[in-house]
TrEMBL record, chain A:
It comes from the Eukaryota. It is found in: Nucleus. InterPro entries: RBBP5/Swd1, WD40/YVTN_repeat-like_dom_sf, WD40_repeat_dom_sf, WD40_rpt. Keywords: Nucleus, Repeat, WD repeat. This is Retinoblastoma-binding protein 5. It comes from Carex littledalei. Residues 532-543 have a biased composition (Low complexity). Residues 553-566 have a biased composition (Acidic residues). One of its GO terms (cellular component) is Set1C/COMPASS complex. Residues 451-566 are annotated as: Disordered. It holds the Pfam family WD40. WD repeats lie at residues 70-104.
UniProtKB/TrEMBL annotation, chain B:
Residues 25-334 form the WDR5-like beta-propeller domain. The lineage of its organism: Eukaryota, Viridiplantae, Streptophyta, Embryophyta, Tracheophyta. This is COMPASS-like H3K4 histone methylase component WDR5B. SMART domains: WD40. Keywords: Methyltransferase, Repeat, Transferase, WD repeat. Coiled coil: none annotated. It comes from Carex littledalei. InterPro entries: Beta-prop_WDR5-like, WD40/YVTN_repeat-like_dom_sf, WD40_PAC1, WD40_repeat_CS, WD40_repeat_dom_sf, WD40_rpt.
Length: 566, 338
């Protein structure tokens, strides 16, 4: 809603660490679709939901059965459910609002990534990418699972759709995890294999519709769709991030794929030994279009968890090197715009806020850093009749600059506002947009804030977690201003007369100001810094400002003379 | 004024039906400072007073459901969370308190002694940090943030869950008199005695805009509030004037006058349940109702014996609650005849 009055020159991409979140040791994070909540999986099996507005803990999802580190967290479409995978090979589905476990299953292997079907409102189908076998489609409600094909090969006239990458002696290590992700609608899955190919697989049919060879042919580590679903990123072992354009439609993706497939069949009907792999690759050209690559040609670093910004404009990659916290931001068109460097701790997970220019990176120490724009105070915001200029402008005197009469007329004209014009205070045209863009019916944007009671807080808050966690949480952020009980509750201002004077007995503006002025003066003295900037507003500021300024000046002078003497 | 015609033209809808006094209650022993209907359904009516208590009333029977005690000084402002399960209060004891309103006794069985007994437990949190009187308080729509303005000229934002002060903005050069979140909680408007109204980005705490009546020496702003759609700000200044300002360009579109407001921070509000009105208290002991479009006074509600400091419109019914200062100490309920 504040978009129309926000300076359009501000925004875009983050620049500095604004805040950090700490609770236990976080391993992986995920924003809900509107960026109001941030889920974080911890090394002790807990899952924390941060209220990203207040940067406080909103909920804790704790399952007594899971005490192993969490490998991934994933929100459902409208944020009602959360899928959590852990190193104890479990997948747990949570109802976020009720804080209840919906179901929990154990797989054969630990899932490094687990994704919920983005097409369903109450998904039970999820995609798990285990450490060393083909990606699995798992129905978490009954535990049934299907392995997805990871490779198509041609042996004479037979072709095989393999689910086990170990079969292939093409140099890939058997323990290479296979990347896989749902597309925007959840109708198809993109599987990245060790041969450097993206396979387009139908979610329901497990049928391979198309193959897109990735330039370089190196093992694909990650496949990421942008928020709009229009673009796809791959991160390969050859230290290059590649950008593709998704040509498939958002809806009826499968039908479109069938059409592509059958049209190819028709044209090649007469060729009996038509190479199935070639055919799938032809299909692939109609599914995704290779655009460009992103890499650091100098350092040639490996990348970790590339992602898009919420508006698809920026691409973010993290250095996978140990002991460095480096974020690279590129324009989608290919230019590197920024390298952000954080504390000397390796990055283990990274997300871009879906709606704001904010990035959250998790370091190996388990702390989540919030990167945001270094907002510059827009001084013209404080004075509506001032305009900020980008650079100096030469003032050209108008012809009638010092003529009295015509100027005045003009002025009057400017100020005439049609006071009888109808105003609409009720309806807002942007509501519909707001709702549509968030796909919004039943979207879980917020969790009800439940104030934790004051006294019992220390004892009750984290009964099961070690004391260390408590401490770390209490010192949640650098912006955490301690709520100082500064004794003003029993301040000298107390006394019923004051309140009579203040509210009952004709609270004149002056009267109201006086006690507050005293209070402010006291505060100003305590803090030794001027509370008030504008000297013309009240009598107090006239006293306090010059004084503090004088103190400052004299300090300066002392130092200065000291320097001269030596 | 020539406004009657435009008022009539705006009323292709039925003509104005006057409000009349239906009930008067006096739950407080001193001046009432604030009265508010609870969102979203107006089930509750809460009032704050200089007698250091908050009365929570059933809005239909006006029976006292709870009396919230705990502040050591008078209370200036109260705000309901959006589901009315919590209430925040701003007090001259420099604190903001959060009260839980769940499981209030049902009106017929309400036992005054019982509700008093439980009142102490209803305070879930005391937010300390302001260096002077806390004068205004409000929740955002999600009710995970609380914002408070004080005589120490700062605005503080609080995390409702933990009670942590998230942000401390040196906002104005004089006491902050009113704060209001826009509908989607992305912005906050603040009013101050320094004569300005400022709009803040709720997420970053940056000032986005300052609304000042240009070309005039600044007059203390006593109240400001976003319109329901968030495009306009209703600004009250201590020169007997209410203005409807366009947020986009900061220009005032409509000016409402006729009432008296020189001294107090009188609250005003939009009435949208039947026709569009501006409703405000006044220092001539009346409640004024203006036609939003025509700017003409539609009605003056007489009955209070002192300045009407606060008014609140029921969110769904054509009902207004008003509260008077020390010579009056009552809350009056006005309804529009069917």
């Amino acid at each position: 809603m504040n978009v129309p009055i926000i300076d359009p020159l501000q925004g875009d991409f983050p620049e500095i660490i604004e805040d950090f979140l700490q609770y236990g040791s976080m391993k992986c994070i995920a924003f809900n679709s509107c960026g109001t909540l941030l889920a974080a999986g911890c090394s002790d099996g807990n899952c924390i939901i941060w209220d990203f507005e207040t940067r406080g803990i909103s909920r804790k999802l704790r399952d007594s059965a899971t005490i192993s580190p969490i490998t991934s967290v994933c929100w459902s479409k409208h944020g009602h459910r959360l899928l959590v995978s852990a190193t104890d090979k479990s997948l747990t589905l949570w109802d976020v609002k009720k804080c209840e476990k919906i179901s929990r299953i154990t797989l054969q292997q630990t899932a490094l990534h687990a994704r919920l079907d983005p097409g369903a409102l109450e998904p039970t189908i999820c995609l798990a990418c285990p450490l060393s076998s083909a990606p699995l489609l798992v129905d978490i409600s009954n535990g049934s699972s299907t392995s997805l094909p990871v490779s198509v090969s041609q042996e004479g006239n037979n072709y095989t759709v393999a689910t086990n990458p170990r079969k292939f002696s093409d140099g890939s290590t058997p323990f290479t995890p296979t990347a896989a992700t749902f597309d925007w609608s959840g109708e198809v899955i993109c599987v990245g294999n060790s041969k450097g190919e993206i396979l387009i697989v139908g979610t329901k049919t497990s049928k391979v519709y198309a193959i897109i060879p990735v330039p370089g042919g190196a093992v694909i580590k990650d496949i990421v769709f942008s928020r709009s679903g229009l673009y796809v990123l791959t991160n390969s072992n050859d230290r290059v991030i590649r950008l593709f354009e998704n040509l498939l439609p958002h809806h009826n993706t499968i039908n479109e794929l069938e059409t592509i497939d059958s049209s190819n069949n028709n044209t090649n009907n007469n060729v009996e030994e038509y190479d199935i792999v070639d055919k799938l690759k032809t299909n692939g050209t109609k599914c995704m279009k290779y655009l460009r690559e992103f890499q650091d040609v100098v350092t040639k670093i490996q990348w970790k968890t590339p992602c898009f910004s919420g508006d698809d404009e920026w691409i973010l990659g993290a250095s996978a090197s140990k002991g460095e916290h480096k974020l690279y931001i590129w324009e989608r068109l290919g230019h590197l715009v920024k390298i952000l460097e954080g504390p000397k701790e390796a990055i283990i997970d990274l997300v871009w806020h879906p709606e704001r220019p904010i990035v959250v990176s998790v370091s190996v120490t388990g702390t989540a850093y919030v990167w945001a724009k270094d907002y510059v105070e827009n001084w013209s915001a404080f004075a509506p009749d001032f305009k900020e200029l980008e650079e100096n402008e030469e003032y050209i005197e108008k012809e009638d600059e010092f003529d009295i009469n015509p100027r005045e007329d003009e002025k009057e004209k400017e100020e005439v506002i049609d006071e009888d014009a109808e105003v609409d205070i009720d309806n807002s045209e942007d509501t519909s947009i707001l709702k549509a863009s968030n796909g919004s019916y039943g979207e879980l944007r917020y969790l009800a804030a439940v104030p934790s009671p004051e006294q019992s807080e220390q004892q009750d808050k984290y009964p099961a977690s070690p004391i260390k966690l408590e401490e770390s949480n209490n010192s949640a952020s650098p912006f955490d201003m301690d709520v100082v009980a500064n004794g003003h509750a029993s301040s000298p201002m107390e006394g019923s007369e004051f309140f009579f004077a203040e509210e009952d007995g004709g609270t004149s503006l002056k009267r109201k100001r006086k006690p507050s002025a005293k209070g402010m003066e006291m505060q100003a003295e305590k803090d030794k810094k001027p509370v008030i900037k504008n000297p013309k507003s009240s009598s107090l500021s006239k006293i306090s400002k010059p004084r503090t300024k004088y103190e400052f000046d004299s300090d300066q002078d002392d130092e200065f003379t000291d320097g001269f003497v030596f | 004024m020539g406004d009657a015609s435009s008022g009539a033209s705006a009323g292709a809808a039925p003509p104005y039906r006057p409000y009349r006094l239906v009930r008067t209650v006096s739950p407080h022993s001193r001046a009432v400072s604030c009265v508010k209907f609870s969102p979203p359904d107006g089930r509750l009516l809460a009032s704050a007073s200089l007698d250091k208590t908050i009365a929570v009333l059933c809005s239909s029977t006006l029976a006292t459901l709870a009396t919230l005690r705990g502040h050591s000084e008078g209370i200036s402002d109260i705000a309901f969370s959006s589901d009315a399960s919590y209430l925040a209060s701003a007090s001259d004891d420099c604190t903001v308190r959060l009260w839980v309103l769940k499981s209030l006794p049902s009106p017929p069985n309400s036992n005054s002694s019982k509700s008093r007994g439980s009142s102490e437990d209803r305070c879930v949190r005391t937010l300390r940090g302001h260096a002077s009187y806390v004068f205004c308080v409000n929740f955002n729509a999600q009710s995970n943030l609380l914002v408070s303005g004080s005589f120490d000229c700062t605005i503080r934002m609080w995390d409702v869950v933990s009670g942590r002060c998230i942000r401390d903005i040196k906002a104005h050069d004089a006491p902050v008199t009113a704060l209001h979140f826009v509908r989607d909680a992305s912005m906050i408007v603040s009013a101050s005695h320094d004569g300005s109204c400022k709009v803040w980005d709720a997420a970053t705490g940056l000032c986005l805009k300052t609304l000042i009546e240009p070309g005039k020496s600044p007059v203390a702003v006593s109240f400001a509030k976003f319109s329901p759609n968030g495009k306009f700000v209703l600004v009250a200044t201590l020169d007997d004037t209410l203005r409807l300002c366009n947020l986009a360009n900061g220009k005032s579109l409509k000016v409402y006058t006729g009432h008296m407001n020189r001294v107090y921070c009188i609250t005003s509000t939009f009435s949208v349940t039947n026709g569009k009105y501006i409703v405000s208290g006044s220092e001539d002991n009346c409640v004024y109702i203006w036609d939003l479009q025509g700017k003409n006074v539609l009605q003056k509600l007489e009955g209070h014996n002192d300045t009407v400091i606060s008014v609140s419109c029921h969110p769904t019914l054509n009902k207004i609650a008003s509260a008077g200062l020390n010579n009056d100490r009552t809350i009056k309920i006005w309804v529009q005849d069917a």
